[in-house]
Please model this.
Amino acid sequence: MWRLIINEGNVYWNMGLDEAMLELKQKGLIPNTLRLYIMKPSAVTIGYFQKVVDAVNLSYLEKNRIPFTRRITGGGSVYHDAEGEITYSVVADLDFIPFDLLESYQFICRGILEALSFLGLKAKFVPINDVVVNGKKISGSAQARRGNAVLQHGTLMYNTNLEVLEKALKAPREKLVDRGISSLKERVTTISLELRRKVDKEEVIEALKRGFGKVFDADFEEGDLTEEEVFLAKKLAGKYSSRKWKFKR
Amino acid sequence: MARKEIVKRIPGGKTLKVELELKGSKIEKVVFSGDFFAYPPEIFEELEKSLRNVDIEEVEERIRKYNEKIILLGLSLEDIVSAIRELLEKD
Model:
């Protein structure tokens, strides 16, 4: 049985809830869950090992009141556009996914590939953790494991404002040179850009439900958060909003 | 005390930044950062801490001790070793 949660909230609460769910899954207290959510207001998350100053444009974030936090998962910085991006998280028993890390990324990302296929786009998984359409990144994922539980969360851009993304995030010069491009904007895309029409979030959420449902062979039942999840998420939100956590590196 | 840093783009992988604080031939502090994945993250942090007050001659051996304990995606411990080597050779 898979539970489906669809909700929205600020970035601290959302990162708190993802971690809370991983923690409670590990204790066997919640079912396997797919959560589809919106970051409201728009926000930035950075990878666990990233340095704030290298990953984001701090003055731009401050000036535009865009909150940011550090994830418990590795990987790079992400701009979560409230009007153009869906974040997903999969919380499951570890034995539900391949044990090998790379294979497990690929397995869960197949849900995104299927969702994009339902929307009419041919997408490709590019190891380690990217999904690309026409050579441009449209989705990135990151995974954490604790005990017998896994959390994989990631992004799917359907109408992200790439001008803001470009200004909010920093890509290392080395990375851009390596890929033969001069800006971040050139290497990312959105569902709307690729389909040449404005796609709305309901459509994308529906596609993600179908995509993950197919890959996980799951019938999702929309459910509610448990009291423990809400309690723990609130507590953890405090960590995610703290300067100490954000500026750990 | 000398501070040195280097950023390496790992072919087919992620980005690694190494920041080193040296006192004579000893490492005062080292920070590895970037968009890579390390499992479990707390053991990776333990590795960083274990390099404090270590002579640069012993660094490579210390890092390799973690071979069995850490799984990295997007770079390898050998990439970290060679980045440090390159950094130490840099003026």
Observations:
- The mean pLDDT of chain A is 95.
- The two ends of chain A are 39 Å apart (CA to CA).
- The interface with chain B takes residues 47-51, 54-55, 72-77, 101-102, 128-129, 142-145, 172-175, 177-178, 249 of chain A (CB under 8 Å).
